[in-house]
Amino acid sequence: MDINIEQIQEHLEEFCCSADEKVLNKMKELCFAYRCSAEDIVDQWIAFSTSKNCTHQLSLTLLDQMEKEELMKPKIPNRGNLLTLYVLLYTILQLLILLVIILKLIRMT
User: Fold this and answer.
1) Would you tell me which of 5, 12, 79, 105 could form a disulfide with 24, CB atoms 3.0–4.6 Å apart?
2) Please, what is the angle between helix 21-34 and helix 5-14, to 10°?
3) What pLDDT was estimated at residue 57?
4) Which residues contact 63 (CB under 8 A, 6 or more apart)?
5) Residues in Cβ contact with 57 at an 8 Å cutoff, skipping those fewer than 6 apart
6) Which key words are in the record (predicted)?
């Protein structure tokens, strides 16, 4: 994923936020390290700063805190995604059973 600091700055400006070049470069590093887009990292920042009741003023210290508290957390699969996976696996199993039955019928004739 090719992210540049201009993209990050554009997304920050949507929330009336700004950052100096060091902070923007740190956010770019976080995008690379955690495989997220410029929009994703800004959304993470807005959610984090809002939950901490801090201003939307970015700093390296707060970004480090966000990385430790949010980005480093193991991702827990969404229940909706798990349900979709289970339904898909169940459907595949049904199709395999049907295929076995069809093959047995073909052999009998």
Assistant:
1) 5
2) 100
3) 76
4) 23, 26, 27, 30, 45
5) 17
6) Membrane, Transmembrane, Transmembrane helix
